Amino acid sequence: MQTTNRQVNSNYDQLTKTPRIATVERTTRETNVQVTINLDGRGTCTAATGVPFLDHMLHQIASHGLIDIDVQAKGDWEIDDHHTNEDVGITLGQAFNQALGDRKGIVRFGNFLAPLDEALVQVALDFSGRPHLSYGLQIPTQRVGTYDTQLVREFFVALVNHSQMTLHIRQLDGINSHHIIEATFKAFARATRLAVEIDPRRAGLIPSSKGVL
To answer: Measured between alpha carbons, how far is 114 from 122 in angstroms, rounded to an integer?
Structure first.
């Protein structure tokens, strides 16, 4: 597979308060994905992936994470949604990694417990530089609308590996597939919002006892 990546980033400056913005374009024989994120945004989202349920979940990340997100994707939808879903996760993860830069000053850890009707999902994450996913969802149906629910895990695998985060997802309750997945994305967004905030007591410092992430 031929892959082309184009990355542009602007990392947060402690003095000028320049927003942390990254733009990544990823092109393969299967997809073309362009992502721009602003970690210091207001939660606006433009998502056109050709996968409506994925667009809906990207809106949750933006709105509840207060991250401005613009995702434009073209994929081999005539086959299925798998490649587009995965490559959006890859490119979004790369954008997170670029926007965070050396991670100086960030809180680093985030944890949130999100209810959505009968569903209850906990997400804990660490922008540690060490990719790891622990995935504990039990989604009862194979599809939500036309979206294959197996793709939820594939999205987070791609996102974790390319953002270099540690991510734990735990389902505490839930019987409705849509509710379980949406609670997961909302919890992820809120945990991310906590983790990427600038800690005023640690401004300009790497949030690690080792001095590097």
So the answer is: 6
